[in-house]
Amino acid sequence: MLNFCSLYSGSTGNSLFIESENTKLLIDAGVSGKKIIDGLISINSSINYIDGILVTHEHSDHITSIGTLSKKYNIPVYATKKTWSALGAQKEYIKKENRKLFNMCEKFEINDFKIFPFSTPHDAIDSCGFNIYKDNVKISIATDLGHVTNKIYNYLENSLLVFLESNYEPELLKYSSYPFIIKKRIASNDGHLSNIDAAKTILKLIPSGLKTIFLGHLSRENNFPELVKKTIINELLENNYDINSLSLNIARLDTPSKLIKIS
After folding, report:
1. Comparing C-alpha atoms, which of 201, 223, 213 is closest to residue 146?
2. Does the reported pTM lie above 0.90?
3. Who has the most CB within 10 Å: 5, 62, 81, 147?
């Protein structure tokens, strides 16, 4: 058994969930602890059974409640050494025995999951994505990245499910109320991924066996779900792909997705 759920994903808060028969993990905890608890209840799970929290990077929309959840429910938290150094106040809530280190590009295990962290181009101290393996099944998480390098393509290949950022639509960003310096940061190679870049990434991954895609981390001001879906579908149709062969899901900021069975 391998199941996945996007509890919450957007520019103001993120948390993902993955489970096997023996292990339940969160990836990031960037919304309130109450929202995460409620989200888990909505998919018939419980915070009491979480075996660990993986941290992609130290930005607040990914770590808001990691300390409080870890302290209250005695949950181990996994991050790189550099990320640990940047966690700030939330780190102080986490017991020393629950502060778990991993190294970039070195596989580690949590019960029956094998996890491979890889570096992502983002303006954080040590931002990473994850390949997560259970038996012969692989899923991948790549959120908060300014562009997709050849190495990242290689890491994402052969995944049955990929959670990929699709943060902004360039024209909406261009005319948004954001200050110029913020627009420049978002569109930079160390910022966030646009809809069309996400679409091109998906197109490249399909031949390797991609079956389910989640598009996440949508900007509230510079994107909307219908536009993401339209961009992806148009790119697939223009390249003669059968859109019915791919399960396309848009992760929401305020509503957990269905629990997706991966096989």
Report:
1. 201
2. yes
3. 62
